[in-house]
Design brief:
Elements: H1 12-18, H2 21-54, E1 63-79, E2 82-83, E3 86-87, E4 93-108, E5 113-117, E6 122-127, E7 131-148, H3 157-177, H4 180-199, E8 206-211
Parallel strand pairs: 6-8
Antiparallel strand pairs: 1-4, 2-3, 4-7, 5-6
């Protein structure tokens, strides 16, 4: 009985083992790099996906002024001495002057709440009330229109401070009456639209704003 002599082909593992050391090292590096890249891509993709739906960035802003108003206020500070309800002559002190006041209004963005309904494709945003964040007197804008001071009744530092506080309060009231808070809300919605637009297609999702 004759036997057929067949040359056995080496397996893939044997072929790899027979490769020169340099080639085996290169293959090992390439394979390892591909595996690491795949893992990093999967982790990054998962992390990015979470960030888009749970963290939009505006939560880190804190208080943010979204509108400013500038008012020029004319103020009168006066004082005098009286006796039996009548002003004593030569005891009147009076100043008429003006200052520019900058009033800033906005929101605490950390208090903003929102929910996303993927089925209805809506984003419901609950905004707190806009509020005045600061009001500052521009000391360089000082203009004096009348100055009269009696040595018998000078205006005290406390009275001057009270007058400036009243001036700031009046400027804030004027700014609010002229729509400062409404403009602050409009600009806040524009800013938030930018944040939501980074994570959602606003051609598909509708943003609905409500007040807290």
């Amino acid at each position: 009985m004759s036997e057929t002599n067949q040359t056995k082909r080496p397996s893939k593992l044997q072929t790899l083992l027979l490769l020169p050391p340099v080639i085996k090292t290169i293959l090992t590096v390439v394979v390892t790099a591909a595996v690491v890249a795949a893992i990093l891509f999967a982790v990054q993709d998962s992390f990015s996906s979470r960030n888009q739906t749970t963290k939009l960035g505006f939560e880190d802003l804190g208080e943010l002024a979204t509108q400013s108003a500038y008012c020029t206020k004319v103020n009168v500070t006066e004082a005098s001495r009286e006796l039996f309800g009548m002003t004593i002559p030569f005891t009147q002190s009076k100043y008429i002057y003006s200052y520019d006041v900058e009033i800033k209004a906005g929101f605490d963005f950390r208090e903003i709440e929102y929910t996303v309904n993927d089925t209805a494709q809506t984003i419901q945003v609950k905004l707190p009330q806009a509020e005045i964040l600061s009001s500052e007197i521009d000391l360089d804008s000082f203009q004096v229109y009348h100055e009269e001071e009696s040595i018998f009744r000078p205006i005290t530092l406390e009275e001057n401070n009270q007058a400036l506080a009243a001036l700031k309060q009046s400027a804030e009231e004027d700014a609010v009456a002229n729509g400062l808070l409404e403009e602050a809300r409009t600009n806040a919605e524009t800013i938030l639209n930018g944040f939501f637009g980074q994570a959602y297609d606003l051609d598909e999702y509708e943003i609905q704003y409500t007040s807290a």
